[in-house]
Amino acid sequence: RHGLIAAAIESFDAIAAASDSAGFADLGDAARTHAASVRFLAGDPAAASRDLRTLLARPNGPGSKLRCDAVVGLVDALAAQDSVAAGLLVLSSNRSILAGRLSAADQLRLSLATGRLLNANGEYPAAIDTLIGVADTAARLGLVGHQLQALPEAARAAVALQRQDQALALLTRARDVWLIERGLPADPEWREIYGAQSRLIATELAGLTLTDSAIPASERLRKAFDGLQTFKARTLRERMLGPGAVTGTTTICDLATLQQKVLTAGEVFLDCSIGPHRSLIFAVTRDTCVVVEGLGDETLGPRLRRFHRLLAAPSRGELSVRS
Description:
The chain is mostly helical. The chain has helices spanning about 1-20, 25-40, 45-55, 65-80, 85-100, 105-120, 125-140, 145-160, 165-180, 190-210, 215-240, 255-260, 295-310, 315-320; strands at about 270-275, 280-285, 290-295. A 3-stranded antiparallel sheet has the order 1-2-3.
């Protein structure tokens, strides 16, 4: 995987250079933006922010759509480096440049970036207002992906303010949007967003359910477990049948069925759900269900990727360096 990432970056850099030579500025800027995105996803936000700053500072900078892409990418890269103030400054300085030039969807992307930064800066009430505004506008425009990004982020701010009921309501709304609209888009980029957001919504909703004092203690485990199985069953059927083929209600193996009809004496069923911020590991027997909360992908992911690189076969470039 590390070798593929390096190859992707090299390919985008080569496309950018060839596009510049041929006079295709927009294509070169698009390649640079994609290269920065790959660097960010590969765990190098410093390199991503450096490249995007260079792109935005060029005298003949990118067009409006690409500028929006670069601004959002730069803001995320800066936030990953705890440079929230710098990210807010980037947004502020580019809003006037982009005013009146963006589609409604791209305007909402800038607002989403603003909401994420407000959250990171501890300005939770402002973050909630901004993000709910994004979700409501996106709902009116039929922009499902924007809703699925805004609602969980708003719920995160509500949790920080200890507004448990509001956070649960926001995540429940996000879950309902995901369940209703999941089968509609076939575009790979949007499906990637949907998949990532489903893990976030499912694990956060289950985590809050486990601590919800409004639910009897005996019901919390069942509701959290069954909720996670709904997400897993839906995505599994979709992988088997293809996008858009799954409609209506998906039958799940809920906790009661698992304990009463599936497990036999002495058997233990382990179920792990990993989200960005937390993981939930259930251990189920015929008469008992317990859950342990662990680290999420944001913490585990970089560690596991480093470990994988130690074990993986070296790429051709690495072999030449070692030799």
